């Protein structure tokens, strides 16, 4: 649990962020000119497990892990006044990683010209069925979701199998098939939001899933879900289940 002192420190960071945006630009600009880090290796481009986010740019870019040119809202321990309090990145693993509502993400790409930042959920990098699945929420006032973002719902570690429920919008998750996945688990996924009338015919099935499985919803892009519905391959499932967010933001 976060201590009272840690909570006060977090509140103080938020106040500084809200009150001194102009000073942030000047301070970061000077700091960047004084200290130029070595260029890191080229960004990882795996073709899957990606999350897209759009970002306002405020400060001079910096390097972290295998990423170069990172800007607001990201910051490191020596650049505390240059970013948003919730977007501190850790560079120690050779990658640029951050925790958002207790879920760790890895930055795969930061393109401030197009306004797109791609993130991967670190728990999905090792396989499709991590042991502890967590829901993650994003503060859209900082990084807003794109219009084509939807939810991929995963019903994980079910107590019994439902092979009769597999359909166009419901697929079985191949857990225990290697690549870091858990063994002997039964899991399913639903490729459309759970509220549309489209799913009225399988409400009973969804209730069975909800009572027998652990549930997590992941932000994904609709085009990747369409590809998964057309061709239910493991590769398409990896791409869809890993693309958590697609954000299109204008630079500030």
TrEMBL record:
Q: List the membrane topology term(s).
A: Single-pass membrane protein
Compartments where found: Membrane
GO terms, molecular function:
polysaccharide binding
Q: What is its main location?
A: membrane
Record's Pfam families?
A: GUB_WAK_bind (PF13947)
Q: Which UniProt keyword terms apply here?
A: Membrane, Signal, Transmembrane, Transmembrane helix
Region Disordered, as annotated, extends over 27-49
Q: One Gene Ontology cellular component annotation? A: membrane
Q: Where is the Wall-associated receptor kinase galacturonan-binding domain?
A: 63-121
Asked if the Swiss-Prot or TrEMBL record annotates the protein with the keyword Membrane, the reply is yes
Q: What PANTHER family does the entry give?
A: KINASE-LIKE PROTEIN (PTHR33138:SF11), OS01G0690200 PROTEIN (PTHR33138)
* UniProt-recorded name of the protein: Wall-associated receptor kinase galacturonan-binding domain-containing protein
